[in-house]
Amino acid sequence: MFSKGFKKIILGSIIAATTLPLFANEVNVYTHRHYATDKQLINMFTKETGIKVNVVKGKASQLIKRLEIEGEYSPADILITVDAGRLEIAKNKGLLQSVSSKTLDSNIPSHLRDRDGMWYSLTKRARVIVYNKDKITPDMLSTYEDLADPKWKGKVAVRSSNNIYNQSLLASMIAHNGKEKSLKWAKGVVKNLARTPKGNDSDQAKAIVAGIGDIAVMNTYYIGRMSNSKDPAEQKIIKKVGVFFPNQNDRGTHVNISGAGVTKYSKNKANAIKYIEFLSSKEAQTIYAQANYEYPVLEGVEPSDLVKSWGKFKEDSLPIDTLGKLNSEAVKTFDKAGWR
Ligand code: FE
What we know:
The protein is of the alpha/beta class. About 45% of the residues lie in helices and about 15% in strands. The longest helix is centred in the N-terminal third of the chain and has 16 residues, at about 5-20. It binds fe (iii) ion.
């Protein structure tokens, strides 16, 4: 027979076990994504699996800092960013862990996932040039490099250099053209700016339609979102804007990704993998494409009709991890060029 004391210990540990969060059927996500589609996907996943998804939203740089501070006590299971650069930074800081999944390997093309299994792309977005159709015709446009040509003086609207989309675009240019040429380019664009960089990508379209500049740099999905905005003013503005895919005669248009990685100290690893697998599935990829106008990564899923209406384009095939590797060089180059 057990002694009274021993019984107490057994009973105590059973109670402890039932209250430990370790046994909760959940997954904790730190995400930089800021779209309604993501809420829809969470609801679908929970309905299908019974796994609760808890979300902390923030800028990737802040979420990465938080993961560093929290260390092994972090509740996070997944980090989702809107850019490959930040995922690579998280990987290099030792904040992610390698996972292997046949589903992820078959759903996500190899050039869109980390070679060590630390992160996986969920969607693609192209960084394009948009133009005011009243003033500019597509034959006047050609490459990102051309944005530095003095003929565009006072005509270029673009957001600030602390934005990761711009940092990754410049990182891609450093990879292709070298540091020196890229610095010269950034200086040239600064000279051509229609105003001090401010606002998000949508605000650049608004600027050129309002007569502040003629051309702007934007990620494609912002154009889709404005075209289907609840705000009629946004719909009106975006109708006046044309979409141009730069560098079609050489390396192709710069493409970035939104992606996810399982955190180093994930307590719900199996659920984390299940969630990322779900996000790579046909049903989730269709929602990313149709409702948020991103390019799906899963083969066989079509972009939305609007996105398709811009036509097929040649993508820059630079390995996506290069964007992270050259991130700090890009930030330095922007600083030197005085791109605020
Ligand atoms: Fe965005």
